[in-house]
Specification:
Two copies of one chain form a homodimer. Chain A has four helices and 14 strands. Chain A is an alpha+beta fold. The first copy, chain A, has a seven-stranded antiparallel beta sheet with strand order 4-3-7-10-11-6-5. A three-stranded antiparallel beta sheet of chain A has the order 2-12-13, covered by helices on one side. Chain A has a two-stranded antiparallel ribbon with strand order 8-9. The first copy, chain A, is globular, with a radius of gyration of 16 Å.
């Protein structure tokens, strides 16, 4: 049975929620990254992502100016790094990525960096931005994809409010 | 280290992926439901969802005609029901929901039904549809929210390709 509650209260039941890291590179070469929880696949032919990116984020500005970004699935041992880039603003001249030990790797198509330790990386080109509510939805087409050579690595999830980030495991079948 | 692969291959690393049930009700009163894996929050003021809904789905037609739907988080014991509505087309006169034992409950604002056993239900009004690729993205505003009285219930996830649906648990902290 259901009981009516506020929407905020109901969203407390959403966990675990997926988390992605979105990397960008400025025209002057500086890399940046942010953590994004509002992320889903948006098309399979061609493959696309839809991502909710705060309009105040450096990442948003860089995506609009370069029209390129990378979506990376952090692995479950990257909680600290994900929290770091998820809770700090990128500053011009600063390097939020290397500050927290994220290792970058060159992509094939876009200038935004791959994250070497991620489970997978998707190089994307901007298709469209729509702003239905208080957050721009950035839609990007995947133009190249990469996976970690370590196939045992699994994704990281937000498992509770306040950036509690952990790996998850399926329950045993009954 | 990353290795370049096809995008399909890279998306094999996306699991667990969240799954939602989307319910609708036709103008003649028939309920319907489908399973949606491409789902994310799209705004927090007001709260919105973005959902990838196949343009051939009965759900898509009903959302366009009624401009209303409900997003429900199935609980981890609803794998069978979620697979049922996720793999069959709704047919006029048929009742895919009650066929598989889904229990409906009246919402407060929209005519689409809540799912009594879901972890949470979000009544939505259509805001906008955008079609950036091969799948319409349906954006809906949450106009009422409900949670299960059983607070121990947790969400269901797709844990592997081919509709393998299970609950998941966070790993113990190290």
């Amino acid at each position: 049975m259901q009981t009516k509650v506020t929407t905020e209260k109901a969203f407390e039941r959403k966990y675990p929620e997926s988390v992605a890291l979105v990397t960008t590179r400025s025209r002057t070469g500086e890399p940046n990254a942010m953590a994004v929880g509002w992320v889903a696949i948006a098309s399979s032919d061609p493959w696309m992502f839809v991502l909710g990116i705060d309009s105040a984020a450096t990442t948003y500005r860089l995506i609009r100016s370069t029209r390129q970004f990378v979506v990376a699935y952090p692995n479950e041992r990257m909680a600290k790094e994900t929290r770091h880039v998820g809770t700090r603003h990128g500053v011009p001249g600063g390097d939020k990525l290397t500050d927290c030990g994220l290792v970058m790797q060159k992509g094939r198509v876009v200038r935004a960096p791959l994250l070497a330790d991620a489970v997978a990386n998707f190089e994307c080109e901007l298709v469209r931005i729509v702003i239905p509510g208080d957050c721009p939805l950035v839609i990007g087409k995947v133009v190249a994809a990469h996976v970690n050579r370590n196939h045992a690595l699994r994704r990281l999830y937000t498992v509770a409010p306040g950036y509690v980030l952990k790996g998850v495991r399926p329950m045993a079948s009954r």
